[in-house]
Design goal:
By secondary structure, this protein is of the alpha/beta class. The protein contains 8 helices and 9 strands. 39% of the residues are buried.
Length: 262
Amino acid sequence: MPTSSLAMAHWLATMKRWRRYFRYRVEGFEHLASHDCHVVVGYHGRPLAYDLFMLGAHVHDELGYLPVALVHRGFLRNAYLRWLTEGLEWATGRGPQLEDAVARGRHIIIAPGGDREGLRPGWVRYRVDWGDHLGYLRFAISRRLPIVPVAASGVDDAYFGLVDGHRLAGKSWLRQALPPWIGVGPLGPWPLSPPFPAKVHQVIGSPITPTEYGELSRDDRDGLLALHRDVQSRVQRLLDRARSATSSSSKRASHAKHSFHR
């Protein structure tokens, strides 16, 4: 079996287990039910963007292909993650994978918050923070692609972070390594422990057309920042909505359980 086929079979089987373990549900998938390329941007859970990876598998089920995920360059320094990245044709930056996705009408999935969100300590949760990372906007605008905001509950509950890995990653002696992060799960430290079985309810928002803000250019920093803030606020609202839906669902389930035992 070719490496790409083996990686695909392995990854889809892994995602099937993840979706069952996290009780994954997706709301608003109709916004991605298109064979034109969309730039999907979402909140980055810790330490992995669990919901975005599971969304990729859902796209495969519904549309017949795996989207291109933009992953951390550190993936190439780990044998297993490098095998996945190359076999699944993920991207670590601008390059042929992204251009091929645009040409073939494959969605591109990006978590602009990256380390800032994914390597936080456990006492900072569910707060969208993308800094001034405008690369995803420049890419979408230059190719006139819709931007689709996504967020999910549960993604900050899989592990409890003990350090601020983003701040540690700024130390010169750590810059060449995988981003440092220490977290704990139900059976001990990550990655030796499995994650907590947090319920992941994902909400996909309506596409944003960059031209809604006029004819922006890649060099219009003020215009890009205005759009960037709007995209972030939409993702934050989706994040709050997803968590509210999960909380309401849990309360209904608890009430039904208590009613049953009366």
